[in-house]
Amino acid sequence: MNPYIVGIFIPLIASLILRKSNNGKKRGLPADAGGEPGCAIRNYRVTSPVESNWEGVSTLAELFEQSCKRFTYKPLLGSRKLITREMEVNQNGRSFEKLHLGGYQWMSYGQAFKAVCSFASGLMQLGHKKDERVAIFSDTRAEWFIALQGCFRQNITVVTIYASLGEEALCHSLNETEVSTVICGHKELKKLIDISGQLDTVKRVIYIDEEGASSEVSLAQKNTSWKITSFVEVEEMGTEKPLDADLPVSADVAVIMYTSGSTGLPKGVMMTHGNVLATVSAIMPIVPSIGTKDVYLAYLPLAHILELVAENVMVAAGTSIGYGSPLTLTDTSNKIKKGTKGDASALRPTLMTAVPAILDRVRDGVRKKVDSKGGLSKKLFDVAYGRRLAAINGSWFGAWGLEKVFWDLLVFKKVRAVLGGNIRFLLSGGAPLSGDTQRFINICLGAPIGQGYGLTETCAGGTFSEYDDTSVGRVGAPVPCSYVKLIDWPEGGYLVTDSPMPRGEIVIGGPNVTPGYFKNEEKTKEVYKVDERGMRWFYTGDIGRFHPDGCVEIIDRKKDIVKLQHGEYVSLGKVEAALIVSPYVDNIMLHADPFHSFCVALVVAAQHAVEEWAVKQGINYSDFSDLCQKEETVKEVQASLLKAAKQARLDKFEIPAKIKLIPEPWTPESGLVTAALKLKREVIRKVYAEDLSKLYA
Asked: Could you tell me which residue ranges the AMP-dependent synthetase/ligase domain spans (predicted)?
């Protein structure tokens, strides 16, 4: 037989057979679970929830020590050296900081263990008491992880706080937990100084040594009574006078993690070592062939449970962790000096975790680049993408075998280079990922996306889609540490008896379900319940349905459903997810009022796409804010939303009748979105109250 024919048809037949077997694969199985009546399932791998994968390991401290002994000489923590920091001025006269960064410098597992032990001893030498709490208030970096594990060595509970948290929430978090020692970067130290008079219990501040820290350190020494010490000094103190470890047990609280506060002040979720270890143990077998050859790019906030779990999974597997930042991620990122490699190019990772907002930006960035080139390049991309999409969707006429290799080399190799070229698996969590983005990333990066669903209250454990599941819009089967149950929500019309699939509120049970909220027993009792068998359940408020293979799809959220004047129910999150695929939309918040029969929307305009359209139309404008106010711009964006709504088959009452274009992006720093880039609806409503009133006028 012709080898060319073999090269095409054997992979095609094998893939179709595999897809057929995967389609029939039961990933979630019915479970006998206690508690409130409903429909429960478990992971097909286990008969009861997993607590630990390792004999004799019941805490994160024991897991870390075990890995450091197993992989002593393997690289663990990688950081980039700052070469220069420069200010550049753009055409509008605005100044931007640009960084010239060197390559990655590595600390082995053995060296990291020594650093952790030294930091733990130094912390106690500094005067920190065992019954006091430490807060880590910093961007994600190697020192963050060392400090965390150092605290665990002395059974000290760590309070995690987003670096982007506002003053009120920051004060609340530190005072409520009575933190006595804060570990921070120099930018965060400046924030602490500004609110020093409002902090009741802080005695010590450990600052991470970096360029530019000296001015903040001097300011803190002059204006506060705190004992100010550098991270390096703490390690040196511990090296000189090492102390024996005081290791925790499984039930000890490892972390009090403050949520980013999408509604009101943030709540502190108490997580035991056993809780987090259960999720780490459950995720390990789902990531395909994870091991010492893998390199993981860490850039999401470690104060977010998704990143905290991911990094502990990497440690358990002997993987190398290279630290980066969302602002230096790629060669064209905002803070990267021209000619300098971004974190992904410098590290060339094989594994990454991402939130949907980041993946949406990667998709939009690739599309913009392709569209700007136009001509043959765009035609080639469109053909290649169409062929690969047809193949994934099961068409006999899609690109497989040698044709796939051809398109990968000719078209997609350049796209994959954006994230280093070696990505083999992506984990997405924190919010629903659109099917459009999931497919785009699958094809362009050539890597499966494991879409997960979980909450801070369940230590990110809930469900996780496996690498061989090619479906979109679902979040997989329960992870091996969890039961997932649906219970009736009659008010919203969701019942476990619904056909063709059971529907209802998602309730998660298992050893990963946390004890509750710190100093908030009322809220804890509202959403946590213990059944007659002693299993703890968390009521998520999310609405899901079970597919026949046992996978979960998130279809609604209780808090996001609004009843309009004529009785129609609108799911805000569902509509926003459908409309954000418009190329003109950077972000969107749908607003529904029970006293009106229609919806409106605040749309953060995608500047590049809107300005490109304006140039083609010959529209004159003074600045982007002026362009967003023009009637023709609003009409163009609204037409784009209508197109997206039709593709998603939204009902007429779900489509915003009027929109307001917002020229400024919503960032965690502005306080309008959380650190995980979720909308802070109440805050946005207050800020844009006048605009919303005009839309309903």
From this structure: 98-518
Taking a C-beta distance cutoff of 8 angstroms, is the pair 172, 195 a contact? Answer: no
To 10 degrees, the CA torsion angle through 684, 686, 691, 695? 90
Q: What secondary structure letter does DSSP report for 434?
A: P
Domain chopping of the chain, boundaries: 17-49+355-421+423-557, 60-350, 564-696
Q: What is the pLDDT of residues 3-39, one digit of tens each?
A: 333 333 333 333 333 343 345 789 999 999 999 999 9
DSSP 642-674: HHHHHHTT--GGGS-SEEEEE-SPP-GGGTSB-
Q: Is 292 within 8 Å of 488 (Cβ atoms)?
A: no
Q: How far apart are the first and last CA of the chain?
A: 72
Per-residue tokens: 305: 């449970």
Q: Which CATH class is domain 60-350?
A: alpha beta
Assessment of whether the complete model's pTM goes beyond 0.85: no
CA atoms of 158 and 254, how far apart (whole Å) = 6
Helices (H) and strands (E) in the chain, counts: 23, 29
Sign of the torsion angle spanned by Cα atoms 230, 235, 238, 240: negative
Contacts of 367 (CB under 8 A, 6+ apart): 583
Model confidence pLDDT, tens digit, residues 65-94 = 999 999 999 999 999 999 998 888 766 666
**150-152-156-161 Cα dihedral, nearest 10 degrees:** 80
**Bridge partner list, 79:** 105
Kindly tell me the sign of the dihedral angle through the C-alpha atoms of 322, 328, 333, 337: negative
Q: Which band of pLDDT confidence, cut at 50, 70 and 90, is reported for residue 358?
A: confident
User: Which residue stretches of 446-600 are H helix?
Assistant: 521-527, 572-579
- Measured CA to CA, the distance from residue 73 to residue 220 in angstroms comes to 39
